[in-house]
Amino acid sequence: MKNRQSIQHIIKRYIKGKANKHEKKQLFSFYKYIESQEKEKEWDEVKHGSREIQEYNLWKKIDVKVTDHDQRMLERTFRPLRRILSIAASMAIAVLGAIYLFVYQSGEKIEATNISVVQPGSDKAILLLANGLTVNLDSMDTRNISFATGATILMKEKGALDYTNTNQINHIMEMNTIIVPRGGKFKVTLSDGTSVWLNSSSSITYPVRFFGNERRVKLTGEAYFEVAEQTKEGTKTERVPFIVETAKQQVEVLGTIFNINAYTDEQDIKTTLIEGSVKISAKSIYDSKTLKPGQQSILNNGRITIQEADIAQSIAWKRGDFTFDAMPLEQIMRQISRWYDVEIIYKGNIDQTRLGGSISRSKDIQEVLDVLKLTGIHFNLKGRRIMIKP
Do 190 and 266 have their domain in common? Predict the structure, then answer.
């Protein structure tokens, strides 16, 4: 390729954050050319053209703080970029099963010290009844649960509880709570037909059957909602609002699909809207915003801000994946800690480490750590404890 050295030069400038608008345009065009022509050999020539480029293998030290225009270009070319740059990591891909990893900070090679295999999470939950009794839902002997009020719920399949056929005799507001422990996930279909998928270390409190002019539930942790539309009795068009209450905010919807991440160990509460419309209200001070599809609200210190949502990343857990895009390692490890029910201990400063990539949540933890070790961070797994050092 005639422009091989020129492309090498642009790659080095881009990695260092010095590429200008024209150079970035050239680089994106080159990636598209590689993708359309399947010229992997030409990428090999560029990749191996200098020792400096080889040292930046796997996108080490790439600074993705670009302008809005550049960001849109990156998003449009993200998939071809991911495939092309994965050529440089072919050995890792072969071992880890087509896992793509982008590293935003370099580090040393590590010692892989995995003494035990920690299995991924599974369908498990505890049902807390209104009378204080508990039912272990992952080891139920019966598929039906009856209540004093006359309602009956059904365990249709493993990991899913269904309230849609409850025939409650009276109008007593009987509350249930589903608690999903660390290392678990669970689905519940509420009496109005609303489906809720709960992530690990989460809970939802709800009535056995909804009555009145609103449908209100309380959430801790993270859940994905598909809210069914419901009209008020005696009307054909007036809808009953569905309200999700967390410790610091309230989300009001009519019929929509959205995800709420409200873990207490996270700095922000994030609400991501996939379909419909929702109104977000902060509890500490009067602040409310309305989301449109594809938007995400972030509640921090009582204030709500709106940004474009990365829907794939926000609901990856519901699809059964971990997906990260320039995410801090500590935030990633909190997700791993909840899903695998392990303790994370840090020795030293790793604040600047950011990762991007995707891996199935069905993998055992050793495979996940095999991916993360490409950052140069040291991971030492003993029992259910992971020691992390720079």
Answer: yes
Angle at CA of residue 223, ends 193 and 353, nearest 5°? 160
What residue type is assigned to position 337 of the chain?
A: S
Neighbours of 349 (CB within 10 A): 9
Angle, helices 4-15/40-47, rounded to nearest 10 degrees: 60
Residue 11's SS3 state is helix
Supply the pLDDT for residue 23. Answer: 75
Domain count within the chain = 3
d(Cα 174, Cα 146) in Å, to the nearest integer?
Answer: 12
| φ, ψ for residue 299, nearest 5 deg | -100, 120
Round to whole Å and give the CA distance between 176 and 148.
13
Whether residue 113 lies inside any domain: the answer is no
The 3-state DSSP class for residue 84 equals helix
Q: What is the pTM of this model?
A: 0.71
> How far apart (Å, rounded) are the C-alpha atoms in residues 350 and 329?
8
Three-state SS for 190?
coil
Report the alpha-carbon distance of residue 30 to residue 97 in Å, rounded: 27
Counting as low any pLDDT under 50, the low residues of the chain are 1-2, 38-43, 45-116, 141
